[in-house]
Amino acid sequence: MRRVLLLWLLLAGLAPVANAQTAASDSLRRAVAQAPADSGRVLLLLQLAYSYRASRPDSTVRLAQRALAVARRVGFGKGEGRALSMLGAVQRERGQLPEAFATQLQALQLCRELPDAEGEASSLNALGNISLDLRQYRQALRYYQQSKAVFEQRGQQAWVAGAFTNIGSCYEKLGVLDSALLAQQRAEALIARHPQPRLAVALALRNMGTVQARLGHTAAAFAYFRRSIRETYASNDLRNRAMAAYLMADLYHTQQQPDSALRYAYQALRTARQVSYRMTMLEASNLLTRLYQARANVDSAFHYQRLAMATHDSLFGPEKFQRLQLLAFNEQQRQQAQREEQELQTARYQRLALLALVAVIGAVAFLLWRNNRQQRQANLLLNERNTRIEAQRQELETALAELRSTQAQLVAAEKWSFVGELSADIADELRNPLAFMQNFAEVSMAMIDKEQPGTARSAELEREIMAGLKQNLKNISQHGRRASSIIKEMLDHARTGTREPQPTDINALVAEYLLRTDHGKPMPGAASAIELHTSFAPGLQPVAVVPDELGRALLNLFNNALYSVRQRQAQEPGYQPMVSVTTQRVGPEVEIRVRDNGVGMSAAVAAQAFHPFFSTKPPGDGTGLGLSLAHDIITKGHRGNLAMETQAGEFAEFTVRIPA
């Protein structure tokens, strides 16, 4: 009764899986029935065959044979190679190792000739499985590594995981447990990211359990085996279920738990028989034999021993072993012939490469000789040109030296012109105090001349005369001091050489030089005088400058602004000329802005405004050194900056910044 209940529960748990698989298979069968006899039908047949491989190998064989026949009829080489590989896989699971080996070699050769990389990788993996069954672990490891390399090139990570778990199984059989554990961990990590196809999941869990058991981690091994069995129910994978059950039974046997070992060994044998999986049938039969011998149950032990011997003979009988040896020898011969052919081909390629290299060297030598000859001729021409260029360069240097000398003379002339203009202004200024002095002197003489000899003067008249003379002398002294000041300034302007900076009130300096301009004189025939707006920053600290030099630069800027507004005033009736001058502190610098609403400049003219000898004034009306001199005084003499912003017909604004 207990066995019936267990069987009912098992069938109930399998019902959803079976139904899902049946639905998928039914869908594939309908697609196959509707597909024409072409490559698409071949691929659908192979896909349907694969869906039955872990549960109904007979159906897999029939479908793979149909796919092979259609592929050969329509000339679909890829389908033919993959159908052969699937047939070889089922042959290997049924214990037909010679046939499986021959079929997989045929599939591998066909896939390489096409080429079909995915089919090649599958055949290499299948050959590794056959080598693993034959306990040729080194050969199996080579096949698995080749398969993994192809899958990695194609980016098929799920199949790379399958190759890793097979490699780990080889290392486990060889006793290299650290490499086996590392390979299984890499497979587990890849499967976590790529869980499809599901058949690889149960295989990886089973192989990891085997490694854990070899390492002595019994609890972890049981956990992996149980997870593998549960996964086989999700994917209806009878092959891996049989192998995982056998490994559980063997581990229980080593743990001295014979009842559990017996139960799982029965399950492994029964499940392996369902899919004709001979290797697990052999292992489960041998384990049942040992378990019944330990229980002194001779009949059962003898029964399972006979089953194990029959299975062993079907796998490794003398006839099959000889066929395998013959196949292996033929494969070795074929591979040797391929290697020799490759070596001959390589030797031919090497000879051709050598001949090509000799030809290339000859061509390069000829080209080098020709290039050398052309280079010598070019060098002769180049030397002649260099000689001519050197002569021209010397002529240009001489002309440039003369030009620089002329420019220096013109700069000096401009400076002296400025001194002359300043002297003329000062002479005008001197006229007033000298005229006043002369007038007061003449008045005083007249007052003295009015005294007649012998004439009695009243005390009051005498006091008036003395007061007037005193006042006249005071006025003469005052205007004399003013004349001396003007003369001193004229001498300072005429003085040459570098002068030391001194603390200067910038606001006072700007105001002083504004007074020296003629901004108050209206232009003849103009409707209105120039408006002058000033805005001086209060509390501006003295700045170390050379007052006369900076004043000269500012005077040039002022005169330039006045000239611009007068030019526009002459062109536009009703125009109001305006010039503004402001000072302020900007960070570590003192800023002076001079803005006018005159004719302005175009971008091309503004780019050359500070170049020496560039002028927009009519010939004879300027030398073009005014802004250039102002730029040099501010930037070189005071380590400041002079910038300009302008728009033709609208305005021009010069910004002076001096380090404070």
The averaged pLDDT comes out at 81
Rg on CA atoms, Å = 57 Å
Q: What is the CATH level 1 assignment of the largest domain?
A: Alpha Beta
**SSE sequence, one letter per element:** HHHHHHHHHHHHHHHHHEHEEHEEHHEE
Determine the structural class based on helices, strands and strand pairing: alpha+beta
| Structural domain tally | 4
Distance between the termini: 109 Å
Q: Which residues sit in consecutive blocks of at least 5 with pLDDT less than 50? A: 1-20
CATH fold description of the largest domain? Heat Shock Protein 90
GO molecular function: phosphorelay sensor kinase activity
Protein name: histidine kinase
Domain Histidine kinase: 425-660
InterPro entries: HATPase_C_sf (IPR036890), HATPase_dom (IPR003594), His_kinase_dom (IPR005467), HisK_dim/P_dom (IPR003661), HisK_dim/P_sf (IPR036097), Sig_transdc_His_kin-like_C (IPR004358), TPR-like_helical_dom_sf (IPR011990), TPR_rpt (IPR019734)
